[in-house]
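Listing S7. Sequence submitted for prediction.
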Amino acid sequence: MLTRLETYYDSVPRSAARAEEFGPLTLFVREGGGWPYYARPALGHTGEVPLAAVEKVRARQRELGVPEAFEWVAETTPGLRAAVEESGLVVHEHPLMVLTVQAEALPVPPDDVTVRMVGAADPDLESAVAAQYAAFGATPAPGAAAQVAARVEAGLTRLAAAFGPDGVALAAGQHQPVGPVTEVVGVATRPEARRRGLGLAVTSALVADARAQGAETVFLTATDDTVARLYARLGFRTIATALIAEPAETEPTAETEPADAEA
C-alpha cells in the first residue's frame, strides 16, 4: 500500500506543477495560481538523504519565493527526517489513513444544510472554493475558482460542499483521482460553522463519490489523533505517519495536507 501511495504522491502534483530534481529529492513548483507545493523524496528513494540535498532544495525554494516545505511518509523514507531537522526545520506528524472498512454509520448533516457534489459549471463553485480558503484564514486569489473549475472539468479534482439555508457554502473538500487511487484533501469548515459535523459529512460525500468513480484506494491525512478518530467512523484506518516539515514560525496550512481544518 505504501508503494502505491508513493507513486500517487509523485504523480498528483505534476498536473499543476513542474518537477525539479535534486538527487534524492524532488521539488514541485506550482505553475499558475493556487496553494504552493513542496519538496518530497524522489520516487523510489528510500535511503538516507544528505543534509546538503535538503539545503540545496531550501535555497531553491527561497530563490523562487515559495515556502520551505517538505512532505513525506516516515515509514517509507525514514532517512529524511534527520537531515530536515538538522537544517533547522520543524517536523509535524499526522496520521496517514486509508479507507479499509465499512463506515460505522454515515454522518447526517443538520436539517438546514445540504451536502452535495459541485460540478465545473455549478454557480455555487465559487462559494465552495471560498469556504476552503476561509477555513485557513485566507482569501481566494483572483482566478482561484476558475482554476478549480478547470480541474473539475478535466477530471483532476472532485469537489463537494455543505451549503447553508442561504446557499452559502459552509464547508468544502476535494478528492484528487489518479488512476485507481484518490486522496481526500482540503476538507475545511468556515470558523463560524464548526463543531456541527459538516467536515465529516463532506468527507463522507467525497468517499461515496470516489467509490462511484471506481477508486480502489481512498486515503487522507488527518490533523491529529483526535480528528483521526472521527475519520475512523467513516472506515479509515491509520497505516503510517505523514510528515510535514516547515520553518518553526510556520503552521502547516498546505492545500493537500492535512486533509482537514476543524472537520
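Caption to Listing S7: primary sequence and predicted C-alpha cells for the chain studied. The helical segments are 2-11, 51-64, 80-86, 125-135, 144-154, 198-212, 225-232. The CA atoms of residues 55 and 87 lie 7 Å apart.
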